[in-house]
Amino acid sequence: MQMAPTSVYREGQTILEVPSLDEPKMMPAFFNPRGRFVRDVSIVCYSAYSLERSAKSRQSFADSLTGTGARGIRVAKEVSSIDQVFLNDINSKALEFAKKSAKMNDVEGKCVFSRSEVCSFLASRVQNDGERFDFLDVDPFGSPSDFVDCAIRAAKDGGLVSLTATDSAVLCGVYPRVALRKYLGLSLRTDYCHEVGMRLLYGLASQTAMRLETGIEPMFCHHDMHYFRIYFSVKVGNPYSKENEKKIGFILHCFKCGYRSIISRDEFFSVRDSSSQTRDKSLNQRGSEVSICPDCGHGGRERGGRVAFGGPLWIGNIQARDFVGRCKKMSELSVFAEELDLPLYFDLNSIHLKKGTSMPKTTAVLEKLMSLGSRASRTRLNPNALRTDATIDILRNVVLELAR
Ligand SMILES: C[S@@+](CC[C@H](N)C(=O)[O-])C[C@H]1O[C@@H](n2cnc3c(N)ncnc32)[C@H](O)[C@@H]1O
Ligand SMILES: [Zn+2]
Q: For the whole model, what pTM was predicted?
């Protein structure tokens, strides 16, 4: 049988043998060089988290859908505090590449390879906590929703789970009903849809964990191309589950004026007015309407905007700032820049300018907001966006004043 062409590729401090990128149609196994940035970010996150735990015991990492092994082999080579790396995939040809790369990087002794369906692989390790994983990555084609349950079961108490989702249209509100089925909450097509997507992913992880009398704590999330990536620690025990319950809620959004807010489940059910019951049937990309907008609804039901909702989803913080600070110390990547915990960023492009004027620089808007006494920061989820506690009216006035 003719062997598929291969190439050697360098990423970080690791050399990878991968299917030839010249003939993508002939590729017998998955490798995407454009995923390099998200893998670079992973290495920093795992290193920072692992250094905190390393004094305790040996640490294991599961690359549960390893493909040709790019992430797992990099962990074995570049994260010295992780002692053992498990690389699993259903595709035996993919595993052959991973094995060759392990040899080339002299990390064979740290690596354990298996060819199994992902949940069988993960379930084989849940008999006692010692066998569960300190680190566990789930990087599927599309949505990770099929695998979240087995991932949380196979993570150690205090372990770190990372998930990738690439079904951007679902998470970003193009298909809200698919989001409801896959992520247990409606998505919303708003200017901050990447944040909605992250909150849906954390929401699914948290709601799955709660079933298992477990909680999650978000550590870090970022977005690159079509990749949504979240990192969370797993906290086993009913108290964590109860804490998580308070972190599931809803987003309210007015498509007429841009008003947005994030609210608990209890608040949501008090906001929902009786007329919304019938309007649920008209669910579309603008979500299901629940009440008149508190900002632009003063003209009454006919003239004011109506507020749509997204969720249920995660309404707590989507990063642990001290953890991100530790990542920042270890890396020059700007994705670890400090970011405030103010929910629902504003994409400045969504603010309509007068004809003939152009959008001011994001930094200029940020500085002006801070000079007016508002809290504000950039967000790693969108380069043209800001987080702020200023009202949308103040933000709009600042943008319009600075626009030329
Ligand atoms: C997106 S790729 C993984 C990419 C890899 N993590 C990387 O960074 O290059 C998804 C992989 O999942 C594998 N896969 C799909 N369904 C699976 C299943 N049910 N069990 C195990 N592996 C599976 C595919 O063979 C493919 O290699
Ligand atoms: Zn409004």
A: 0.94
